[in-house]
Amino acid sequence: MSQAGGQKPAANRMTLQTFKARLGGASKGFKLLKKKRDALKAKFQALLKEIVDTKLKVGEGLKDGAFSLAKAHYASSGDDIASTVIERAKRPSITTKLYPDNVAGVSIPLFKMSYDASKDSSAQTLGVACGGAVINAARETYRKAVVSLVKLASLQTAFHTLDEEIKMTSRRVNALEYVLIPRIEDIIHYITQEMDEQAREEFFRVKKVGRGCASSSSPSLKTEVVEKKKVKLQKEKDEMAAAGKRTEAAIDAPSMLATKKDEDLIF
Amino acid sequence: MELSMFNVSHGFTEAVARGLRSGFLGVEDYRRLGTCDTLEDMRSALEETDYGTFLQDEPSPLLVSTISKKCYEKLADEFRYLKAQTVEPLTTFMDFIAREKMIDNVCMIIQGALNNKAPKELEEKIHPLGIFEGMKVIMSESFDVQGGFDDVYRIFLVDTPIGPYFEEYLKEADRDKDEMARAGIETSQVGGILTKQDLEIMKTSLKKAWLEDFYSFVMSQGGTTAEVMGHILKMEADFRVLLVTMNALNTNLSTESSLQDRNALYPNFGYLYPEGTKELRKVFNDTTVRAALEPYSKYLQYFDQVKDFYDAESGGRGQGTSFQSIEDLIYAENVHMYEMAFEQQYHFGIFYAWVKLREQEIRNIRWIANMVVLNTKDHIDDTIVPIFQPRM
């Protein structure tokens, strides 16, 4: 890639083609990335809405759970069941697995919950003398709350990952739009200009060479032709001055070749 | 005979108990507690009652469990004071009341030991009413499970009054399904037995043994005590049968193979005994329960009222907040029974009734505290049972 702002590359057709190809690639990439970023943003908004809903649900679920726990405390003749439950918990009956999910080309982690009721058995006989059923009811309520919690966890990790992804894509889009493409365009512009200059130089050189050969014929015609030449040169000089390139050297040189005046035209 | 001699030995204690009766929270107090917004408000509301400034030293923020614990400690203090004034046989009677809580404590310690919990944590959770000598010894050293169990066993069986219940349970627990119970237990085997058993079932069996022992003691007292306490304990036994049956309905205790375990938890006295329990032994779902309870109209009524709560569990999930479970109904019935006990004089029943009513009050306070914290104060009234409501 051109690091030094475009002074380096040789100004010929081949490099022009190369850079034109690069520009095409860059603009296509830019369009695609823009589409990806927009799609991600839309998903993001939807995700945000879902998160708000799920958070509310989790709040409700935990509140219900706390209420049923209070009921369980009351029913189990005021004993402290919380410690007993904790003591008896040996194996987890709810496990979660992490799965990768694909959204608009981005890989997002997702939690899947699996509930194995048979592992709950350690607490089945809890409170068989009093309050057992209420304790089980409390457990059911909390299990439902855990389901929403796992969902919320998935949503929040997805949110986080998407956020990172969107930032990165935005950065790339902006870089393409404001840095890369202008740079390539500058280079192309410079190359085209350089090539035009070269063409004019070539044209001019050929004409001068031709004039030099024709200067050996009649001197009277010579002055007319020289005058005509001078006018033409002046016109060209003005054009060059308008283009703003280095022209002074080219104009001063003809004094040596003023005697020649061959009108060989070059394409 | 009784009328004249009772007051000689027990007059003072009965008077103190009746004095304490007036310290129960009244309708006004419950209303005031119901309007609290935070636990701090509850603290100041309780200051005006007989509870006084018992929460003063607790740092804020207050927890529901702290309030509950402090209430129990107050009850334990008053209980110990009362017990200190007694003479035989009232002392044994009050000891019986405390034994129920001792069983709870011991089971909790065993559970904690099995999980290698630090003694400090166990100390936090003991029930203040059930403290006995030797308990400090068990908890002060950090012991490994196998070796420590020998000490624990020795202390339990020898020093405490709940030793015999343990012995009976261990014998039952160790036998195979077909053989008879063994004659005695070696010390070293205890650790092995205790680790295998389901502690919850052990606790329930111990309580059953305690209840039967209590009943025989009470009947041996004769007179009004036997009449009043006999009735109370019979109802207690019946409720226990009902509770075990209902709570086991949806668990694996109701399967064919485990029915015997469940039936071992039925006490061997009560109004349901022997015909009712014989029927109930075969029960394993709602319809069979209903059929077994047919002859007992009151229990049938209870069952019908709470049936929905238990149905909703096995099927879909009903609105748990509005349904009552059988424990709620039993508590209400118990309170009524205990209030009746105070109507008669010259018997030991009022002490038992007083302890149980205080427990119910603490349950009420705990429920109100939970509702205050959860900000669902409208549910308070569905569940608490007001004690000694004025009869208009």
What does this structure look like?
- The complex is a heterodimer of chains A (about 270) and B (about 400).
- Chain A is mainly alpha-helical and about 270 residues long.
- Helices cover about 70% and strands about 5% of the residues of chain A.
- Chain A is built from 5 helices and 2 strands; from the N terminus they run ααββααα.
- Chain A has a two-stranded antiparallel sheet with strand order 1-2.
- In chain A, strand 1 and strand 2 form a beta hairpin.
- The longest helix of chain A is centred in the middle third of the chain and has 83 residues.
- Chain A starts with 12 loop residues before the first helix and ends in a 15-residue tail after the last helix.
- Chain B is mostly helical and about 400 residues long.
- Chain B is globular, with a radius of gyration of 22 Å.
- In chain B, helix 8 crosses helix 10.
- Chain B: V-ATPase is a heteromultimeric enzyme made up of two complexes: the ATP-hydrolytic V1 complex and the proton translocation V0 complex.
- Chain B: InterPro entries: ATPase_csu/dsu_sf (IPR036079), ATPase_V0-cplx_csu/dsu (IPR002843), ATPase_V0-cplx_dsu (IPR016727), V-type_ATPase_csu/dsu_dom_3 (IPR044911).
- Chain B: This is V-type proton ATPase subunit.
- Chain B: Keywords: Hydrogen ion transport, Ion transport, Transport.
- Chain B: Pfam families: vATP-synt_AC39 (PF01992).
What is the topology?
The complex is a heterodimer of chains A (267) and B (392).
Chain A: H1 13-75, H2 81-88, E1 94-103, E2 106-115, H3 132-214, H4 219-243, H5 248-252
Antiparallel strand pairs in A: 1-2
Helix pairs in contact in A: 1-3
Chain B: H1 2-21, H2 27-34, H3 39-47, H4 64-84, H5 90-114, H6 119-125, H7 135-140, H8 145-159, H9 163-174, H10 187-196, H11 199-221, H12 223-248, H13 259-263, H14 275-281, H15 286-293, H16 297-314, H17 326-341, H18 349-374, H19 380-383
In short:
The complex is a heterodimer of chains A (267) and B (392). Chain A is mainly alpha-helical and 267 residues long.
